[in-house]
């Protein structure tokens, strides 16, 4: 008896997300799940995709995003879907949209705000809003420590009192009950820089009972990175949860090469606790504009400026020249603003990407006017540039770093692997042509070689074009 499926992807080369060597086969999908893998010659389906000469892999999971508001404002999620991403992890770097009711919150909360977006008094309300308004991709969310500080404290230029930290812990508990998958910090940024390690441990305490994880944009990624890593490991041990170090990098020319040291520390820590990192495949970073980054950077490009939008895309020395002031003074006049910083070493980026427990994460900033190209290019750049062209690791490893590893580290059940019974989140791509199209000059160009993208059994990208489908689910902790 021939079987009948909703979808068959035929003649594919399958990479399953577990680093298994690729194999030939067809994939049958019924409803939202994978129903069969193998030779399905006799079987039929409502829709068939011919993947001759192409790879079919689990849909990519973007382990590091700031898509909290973008999921609602741009539910097509084109920068992500066009790269083959089927799930995004939001709420990174201490920044989450909930629980906080505020207008014009302090930077970096404005990274995802349009000044009216912080309108959820509880995490449950935010989750309900996302669940009721599906996007093209799935989403899993974390609660941000900086958001909690702004919600719980009258002033954020000091450490929290015991009662304020206890209030943050109550909000973490509420977020975890509502389905948050973790708790993030951004102690690099001014609103959280005054937090003590003890404050963070108190606020993160509820994570353990709910199987959450501690995810951190550390206090320091340059000269004092080792102390910052030790703090992250300590918080993980004391709270009793896994640690994920965000966008791992070593910044500043005098620190070039120090990834040898940081990866050794990670390897040592891994023997006694669960630690891993995410990483984007570029030597430039992007975040709010700060004058203290000038000496650490080879080049700085402005990505947005509230008072001076005309300088979007312009290099900082050129802004200073046109203003007739120093670079430091130009920064002061541009704020609030964002920037791209060229401040990393290619050998470090490659060493970190190659590390056993490094997941791929874009850290894309979707509301920037002229964003860092990582927003549109991260995943195909790892597959094309780093795996195929440079040979940094096999394609199976590249896929694992954006699927199976990520699903395991974030506890996303039945995602990130291509197997019967798993959710049918799938990406079909051409291994010979896949690459990033986005550049620093033209950062919003779609990727090359991404053919079709399926989310929960429904195509959201077919033959290189977006569909109108919005099959994304909100993935809750234990959900
Ligand atoms: Zn960050």
Description:
There is one protein chain. The protein is of the alpha/beta class. The protein folds into three domains: about 5-55 and about 420-465, Urease, subunit C, domain 1; about 60-290 and about 340-410, Metal-dependent hydrolases (TIM Barrel), CATH 3.20.20; about 290-340, D-aminoacylase. Domain 3 (Dna Ligase, domain 1). The chain contains 15 helices and 22 strands. Strands 1, 2, 3, 4, 5, 19, 20, 21 and 22 form a nine-stranded mixed sheet that branches. Strand 21 and strand 22 form a beta hairpin. Helix 4 (about 145-150) crosses helix 5 (about 160-180) and helix 7 packs parallel to helix 8 (about 225-240). It starts with a strand and ends in a 13-residue tail after the last strand. The structure holds zinc ion. Zinc ion binds next to loops.
Give the low-confidence spans: none
Structural class of the secondary elements?
alpha/beta
Q: Label the CATH architecture of the largest domain.
A: Alpha-Beta Barrel
Helix proportion of residues, in percent? 25-40%
Distance N terminus to C terminus? Answer: 35 Å
DSSP strand count: 22
Q: Say which molecules are bound, naming each kind only once.
A: zinc ion
Which class of the largest domain in CATH terms?
Alpha Beta
* Number of contiguous helices: 15
CATH topology of the largest domain, which one?
Answer: TIM Barrel
Structural domains: how many: 3
* Biggest sheet architecture: 9 strands, mixed
CATH H level, superfamily name of the largest domain: Metal-dependent hydrolases
Shape: globular
Query: How much of the polypeptide forms β-strand, as a percent range?
Result: 15-25%
Radius of gyration: 22 Å
